[in-house]
Here is the input.
Amino acid sequence: MSDQGIKSRPTYAPLAPDPSGRHHLLVVEAAEVPAEALAEGISPSAFEVWTVARRSAVPSVPAMEEAPGSVATFRSVTHLFSALEERLARETMGLRLYAAGAEPFLWDVWGRAQKAGLSRQETAFAEAGPKARRVYCVHCRTMSEGITTSIFTCPGCGASLFVRDHFSRRLAAFMAVQVDAEVPGEVPDAEELYA
Amino acid sequence: MTAAQPFSVRVREIVELAPSLKRFSFEPVHGGVFPTPPAGGHVLLTLRDGARVMKNAYSLVSPPSERARYDIIVRLVAQSRGGSSYLHRRVAPGDVLEMANPVSLFSLISTAKKHLLIGGGIGITPMLSFLPELKARGARFELHQLATLEEVPVFERLLAPYAAGEEIRVHGGGRAAFDLAGLLSRQPLGTHVYVCGPHSLMDAVASTAAALGWPKTKVHKESFGGDVTGLPFRAVLRKSGIEVEVGESQSLLEAIEAAGVDAPCLCRGGACGQCATPLVEGEAEHRDDFLSAEEKAAGTLIMTCVSRARGPRIVIDL
Here is the structure.
């Protein structure tokens, strides 16, 4: 049932500052930089770091310091993305953007980076955190977050969907297709695969 | 691949822009229109000066939407190997020349957020083809043209049709007065820089951009090939079973063609890589922009259009 063997899946590597860059901004989906996201011997202080606290009370950042070693904390991922869009719009050539977090977060960062004109050569991603998938129903276009099973019911159209390994960088989501299209009602048992 | 079969063009007009700059306008000999050229494209002209055959590449300066004529601007170079001097002194309106279809190795990047154009001297030519295209696309751009003080008005006139409301500047104060690092350091994310001019200018742009953190993929250079002259040498064409003498003012490719061998080529300026030929024996003096430093050091390939032998003899697999 599984279609492993898809070779287009993104691959990730622990982060280190790109020596050819002029500014290094690291955005993290968590409150701290995950240790496994950094290459051996690399300290978070090599980057300007943005983190997400997931709580409302965060230290205020009156004049944001844009230097290696500085840390800015945001209330939520949405809050961070809003600041990131504003920052990228006024950045100059030479920036390197790094991201550490779960796969959907990384490619949401990429979408904003690409919109601002950054290329893959100017970005680097390290996967950290849960492997639960963001999934896109190819039939009704509904996104589902946090999917951990091989098969699930689409909250948009009610179809029983098989989660493929086909990852869309543009949508930052895995593609899912109706599993019982040939024989309606014949739905295999869901397996817990992506925790 | 070799450039397509040449076709005949008639010189329709020659305009002297400056003492050493002439604009040549060509039209199809048999009526009709030319193919739509790519922005930043160049054409290959075959120039026959007696027994000597030269094939030189010239950037088109007419707008890509213009199909009734193709225009080029040619600088008369003091140490010309014959191409620019032949065009300046021997070619007259009404003459028929051979031209190959335009190709481009210097394209505008459609995903760029901004285009930064830097021209040095006659390196203005591909920029003149870019400008109408950028205007038509409504793209964000900025152009800096370096010129000698005497030629500033000439370049200003050429750029005038595109200048209204745009960041277009002609610098006549020499390279030292041109703040390249300042210019490159204030460009917004997603900018691509395009430079055409002397090798020293293109190298300065590439190295300054790299030092400021620009990725290589956003730096674009259009090479004119530079100097291809040097000491004479003998080239052995192993597959063809012949030997050719390469004269001082002749390129290896020209000598091969003069011997009747159909060698691969496209840009004839050391940029495209089409003419890369295995080097079997002897050492090459690499003058191209295509091979990497490692490939040049390995010494197993030679670009026949611009590179020469370092020594009296080489053997190539052609």
